[in-house]
Structure formats: C-alpha cells, structure tokens
Design brief:
Helices cover 52% and strands 0% of the residues. The chain is built from eleven helices and no strands. Helix 4 packs antiparallel against helix 5 and helix 8 packs across helix 11. The N terminus is likely disordered.
Length: 175
C-alpha cells in the first residue's frame, strides 16, 4: 500500500499527458496484472500498479475501463481510493466514445457467470455494478453519448434487455 500512497501524493506523474504505449502494438486488454481472472492483490503489491495506472491501451482505455468491463471489483476499489488518479481516469473516453459508465453496458464475448444463478440475480449484479460506477462518474458524463449515439443507460438497457425479459418470464412463472 506504500506504492498506492506515494502515487496519490506524488506530483511527478503528469497523468494528463499519458499516451498509448509507443514501443509496439498491444492487445486491447493488455494491462499489467489485470488478467480477466486476476485480482487487485498482485497489482497493489508491486510496481505494476504505477505502470497499469499510466497505461492506455490501443483503444484509449485506462485500467479503470478494463476493470469495469471485466467486473474486477478489487482493481476498481484500488483505483477508486487513489483520489488524484481517479479524477483523471473518470474523465477518460475511449476511441469509441465510451465513458467508464458505458463499460458496464458492454458485455464480454467470453462471459460465463461465476455461479449458476437465475437471470434475475445476474441482472441484479449488473445493476449493482451500474450504480457503483455511476456513483463515481461526474454528472456531465452520465448523459454522454458514445460514437453510436447511445447513453450509458441506453447501452446498458439494450445489452441486458434479453436478460431482463428472461428474468421477467421466470418471475411470472414462479409467482
């Protein structure tokens, strides 16, 4: 955690001038120690945190965008506790016009639920993520439209409409 504290108070890092990696192409989710199944432990206990915080992938996403997309709560909380870094990251928009709130509405292609649960519980988890991210998003980004002219809420509703319908049918059947 010493590394986290030093990043919060250090003025040597100018995050406004962070650019995509110049030493070659990276994959779209090529963040140090943020594998989809990884956790924030490895990130907070090494120099990877500083590198990950400064990194912007080839789609102009930060570690916060990727942590939200892959539902990495530990990484999200770790970055959220870094006040200076967080102020910069919540303002970043990727090359598709997506804010961090839009990332909640982008479903992963390789998504497999951790537990076998019904659609109502799965939708509830997604809504909790949406509200968690909305709580840290600046007000003027909540109604921001991406390149496809969708707000984050509209994208979320469109992405999870089938899951919502499944949950609705299940509730009606069980009632």
């Amino acid at each position: 955690m010493v590394l986290v504290e030093s990043l919060q108070t250090s003025s040597a890092i100018d995050l406004s001038k962070t650019k995509p990696h110049k030493y070659g192409p990276s994959s779209s989710d090529d963040f140090p120690s943020t594998e989809k199944e990884g956790s924030g432990e490895e990130l907070s206990s090494s120099n990877s945190l500083k590198q990950a915080v400064e990194h912007i992938d080839n789609e102009e996403r930060t570690i916060l965008h990727v942590a939200i997309k892959y539902r990495q709560l530990e990484v999200f909380e770790l970055v959220s506790n870094m006040e200076v870094v967080m102020r910069w990251m919540i303002r970043r928009i990727d090359n598709k016009g997506n804010t961090i709130l839009h990332m909640v509405g982008i479903k992963r292609e390789d998504y497999v639920p951790e537990k076998l649960r019904g659609p109502a519980f799965e939708l509830q988890d997604e809504l909790i993520w949406f509200e968690r991210v909305k709580a840290v998003t600046k007000a003027h980004f909540i109604d921001h439209r991406n390149n496809e002219k969708q707000t984050a809420e509209g994208l979320f509703a469109n992405t999870y409409k089938d899951l919502r319908n499944e949950a609705k049918v299940l509730v009606l059947v069980l009632a």
